[in-house]
Amino acid sequence: MDEILTSIRRIISDDPPAKPGRRSTAETSSLADLPGPAVSPREEPVSSPMPAGPERSTTGLLSAESHSEAASAFASLNHTVFSKNARTIEDVVQDMLKPMLQTWLDAHLPSLVERLVRQEIERISGRS
């Protein structure tokens, strides 16, 4: 191992140092054999101005008369909804659900409570 390192050091020291800026003929010939650049430079595409789209008309789909009728209908609806006597959908749903919920609870609550109490008693008595 020492012999190999010694011979490498000797070879390195025998080579005269190269002058900066000059390359050996072996280096220049190897560089001359290299192909050109792998990627050719691309020109940046020139963006052309966007064509103008169709102009939007300022007239709406509705005539002025239809527009005013629709606006008055919405105003009337708004007044009806926010008046004191108006019922909301939530009120209607609550009124409809109360009897249905009462019927379901009358039919199912006793057996539900009985089953849950029995399970809890069995759980407690099993640990004692």
UniProtKB/TrEMBL annotation:
Annotated region described as Disordered, given as residue ranges = 1-65
Pfam families per UniProt? DUF2497
Name of this chain's protein: DUF2497 domain-containing protein
Instruction: Give the source lineage, highest ranks first.
Output: Bacteria, Pseudomonadati, Pseudomonadota, Alphaproteobacteria, Hyphomicrobiales
